[in-house]
Amino acid sequence: MKPGGFSEEDVLGLAKQGYEHGKATFAIEKSSSALLVIDMQDEFVRPHWSPFWVPEATRRVPQMKRLIQYCRSQNIPVIYTVYSKTHQYLDRPKTLPLMPSRFPEKNIDLSPYFISGSIWHELEPEPHEIVIHKSSYSAFHETPLETILKKMEKDTVIICGTLTNYCCSTTARQAFERSFKVVFGSDVTAAHFPELHDMELKVLRRGFALVLSLDEILKEIT
């Protein structure tokens, strides 16, 4: 197609197609893949325990457990991430306490949370599995994750966990920028609200990742 001649209707139609139906063109090869389980820790998963609880993450534990178990059966490495007390919290973005996500206007004692980085018991890592202790949304930000994946000779990451529109999607974007192939599970990730989850999937689908359901992921792993 020659340059020029694209109407507003044309370009918006192309964009809509990508957001709603786009599909990245790569295969999921188990020999070069690793599964990232993002932040499925008590603070986000344990019902009623913390102000950071994501109820949908709790509901999606069975699907994530199924994905984890399948990856283990196929010798696909499972790597977990958590927030915990690292470096006296001095490794956090300086502006983090200023964000509404930390409830600055509320009288909530946040001191009991994000100390040990305890993963929800139903998804507990096996002794040999790696747990990345991170300080910000991305699992790549100032962590050894990229080095670990390269030493494992993995060029594809499968992402599950929470929150879809924070840590999961930020990790997906930074994986993409590091030239990893990104598989993003549409029903093994969770956000606070369905509309935020769905909107994030649309953005990732068009520009960053192969977005698939759990059943599709299991079917396409070769």
Number of strands: 6
Distance between the termini: 35 Å
How much β-strand is present in the residues?
15-25%
Task: Describe the global form.
Answer: globular
Widest beta sheet: strand line-up:
3-2-1-4-5-6
Give your account of this protein's structure.
α1 (8-21) crosses α7. Helices cover 35% and strands 17% of the residues. The chain is globular. It starts with 7 loop residues before the first helix and ends with a helix. It is an alpha/beta fold and 222 residues long. The model has no long low-confidence stretch (mean pLDDT 96). Strands 3-2-1-4-5-6 form a six-stranded parallel sheet, with helices on both faces. The protein has helices at 8-21, 42-45, 55-59, 61-73, 145-151, 164-177, 194-207, 214-220, and strands at 33-38, 78-83, 130-134, 156-162, 181-190, 210-212. The chain has one domain: 3-Layer(aba) Sandwich (Rossmann fold). The chain contains eight helices and six strands; from the N terminus they run αβαααββαβαβαβα.
